[in-house]
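Lecture 7, part 2: worked example. A protein chain together with nicotinamide-adenine-dinucleotide.
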Amino acid sequence: MRVLVTGGAGFLGSHLIDRLLEQGDDVICLDNYFTGRKANVAHHLGNPNFELMRHDVIEPFKAEVDRIYNLACPASPPHYQYNAIKTIKTSVMGAINCLGLAKRTQARVFQASTSEVYGDPELHPQPESYWGNVNPIGIRSCYDEGKRCAETLFMDYHRQNGVDIRIVRIFNTYGPRMNAEDGRVVSNFIVQALKGEDITIYGDGTQTRSFCYVDDLIRGFMGLMESDYALPMNIGNPGEFTMLELAEEVLKQVGGSSKLVFQDLPQDDPKQRQPDITIAKRELSWEPQVPLAEGLEKTISYFRQDLGL
Ligand code: NAD
Ligand code: UDP
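Predicted complex, written out as structure tokens:
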């Protein structure tokens, strides 16, 4: 297979590329390096099956491929809010450009959507049939609504032009190669604990998230891509934790003297989030295998090495 991965130099994209090359695919990695870095894929430079392209998905691109994974988009709130207009353009124009390419080449195209399409959910856990509770004009909207619009475009290209689509709704995922600076909770807590700095809890820390280890997620991606399922599918780990519980587990594993400090809860921060993975189980026989404590251990050891701590 010839596979294009947009956002391939990012956290998830680089793990996906590792697995695709391992199974013998030819991979083109397309990235503008906004939040990704060449170091994440540098170990493949020189591999004749790997090509690295600096490009922005809001501009059209051409390639003869069989599969397209569209992952390009900043994923952490501080990064996607840094230039909100650019974030919407990336989701919407990026989707249109990938779908146009898929239409021409008859490639199968996969969209990295998000649990954020459910907003601050009133239904718990969230099944794919839930339409969500999203503020269309808040500071998270550039990301949430951009991803919702991308899903709409995927479904319309599918219905109108017969494009072969896959849509995954990703729930909070963590692991090695997360960007230490990107502001997401797992990397923040680990880096703070390793540096002996205060652990920043936003709000009272009782809000919940369900954290999936990256290897589990990528196995789900590849299973979905090669399945026949053309509707949105949740992939995530149903294990649900409060931010206080997460901080406690990180501190237990890292040790050290960090204290918890409480800061303002960002606007529209969802109070709870947990995937209903009935469809992934049924369609892909997929289930996460890595529990939080084990995944955190691997992630902590990555950050120790990466930051020299
Ligand atoms: P990331 O920030 O590490 O990776 C995103 C990649 O896209 C980066 O390499 C970045 O440089 C690139 N990029 C951003 N804008 C671009 C543009 N305009 N043109 C080309 N490249 C661009 O984040 P990630 O965690 O690897 O997320 C990958 C995808 O998965 C994103 O679409 C994100 O929305 C989605 N997602 C991730 C999570 C998660 O928990 N990690 C959860 C839900 C959805
Ligand atoms: N959070 C926190 N401290 C931090 C970073 C994040 O308490 O240093 C909280 C944040 O308010 C949210 C949760 O952790 O409730 C997950 O945040 P993240 O940005 O990782 O993901 P998202 O909110 O997009 O699910």
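The chain has a mean pLDDT of 97. The two ends are 40 Å apart (CA to CA). Keep this in mind for problem set question 3.
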